Backbone:
């Protein structure tokens, strides 16, 4: 039998049934954090919804006050003055038909795709390309907008999208282990508040059922639901 590492032994000693406060969870994750790189912190919320039904879909955008700690690559479909504004705001790629052809050729290394309303005729031809990756611009998410300058700044400044998966779970990164505790807490509150407020009309029974916090190589810790307002 292979000899267990110290980290594996530490993880086995954790109580799998314990419900952690935010302070306890952060302290525990820091104890198990890698010394070699800056791990990402992620929250998972198990919701009482079935997203196969339209009235139980949970999706939205929220700005994390402390940012994500990750560089966000943004592509913008715009022309003329709007294209100039998007470039000035820090977009990584701005274009029209040329950008569409670039994406059709497989160049999709972006975290967010934004478009002005007049460009949706061009963007619409990318449905089969952008849709499966969750990158299709959407007016409800603010990624189809005449104000591309603000949309680019929001994307670069820590705005994240959340979307419930088939199993009724939402996963979202909320920062890096190098963040201060108060910055992680602010991000945690922002994302959980947004998800609670996004409760759909078709949700029946208990909405927020479980919450866990983990890091890239850390254990998954069950959170006390009292850490989330409205849960």
Residues:
């Amino acid at each position: 039998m292979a000899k267990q590492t110290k980290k594996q032994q530490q993880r086995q000693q954790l109580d799998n049934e314990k419900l952690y406060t935010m302070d306890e969870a952060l302290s525990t994750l820091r104890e198990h954090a890698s010394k070699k790189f800056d791990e990402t912190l992620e929250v998972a919320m198990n919701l009482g919804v079935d997203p196969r039904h339209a009235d139980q879909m949970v999706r939205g955008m929220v700005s994390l006050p402390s940012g994500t700690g990750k560089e966000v690559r943004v592509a913008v479909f715009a022309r003329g003055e709007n294209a100039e504004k998007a470039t000035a705001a820090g977009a990584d790629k701005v274009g029209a038909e040329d950008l569409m052809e670039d994406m059709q050729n497989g160049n999709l290394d972006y975290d967010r795709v934004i478009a002005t309303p007049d460009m949706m005729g061009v963007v619409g031809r990318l449905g089969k390309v952008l849709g499966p990756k969750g990158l299709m611009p959407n007016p409800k998410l603010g990624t189809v907008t005449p104000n591309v300058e603000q949309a680019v700044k929001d994307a670069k400044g820590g705005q994240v999208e959340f979307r419930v998966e088939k199993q009724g779970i939402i996963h979202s990164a909320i920062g890096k282990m190098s963040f201060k505790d108060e910055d992680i807490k602010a991000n945690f509150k922002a994302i959980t508040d947004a998800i609670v407020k996004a409760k759909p009309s078709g949700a029946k029974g208990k909405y927020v059922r479980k919450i866990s916090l983990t890091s890239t190589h850390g254990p998954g810790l069950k959170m006390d639901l009292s850490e989330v307002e409205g849960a």
Strands lie at 40-47, 59-63, 74-77, 93-95, 112-115, 159-163, 169-176, 208-215, 221-222. The CA atoms of residues 41 and 215 lie 4 Å apart. The longest strand covers residues 40-47. The mean pLDDT is 91.
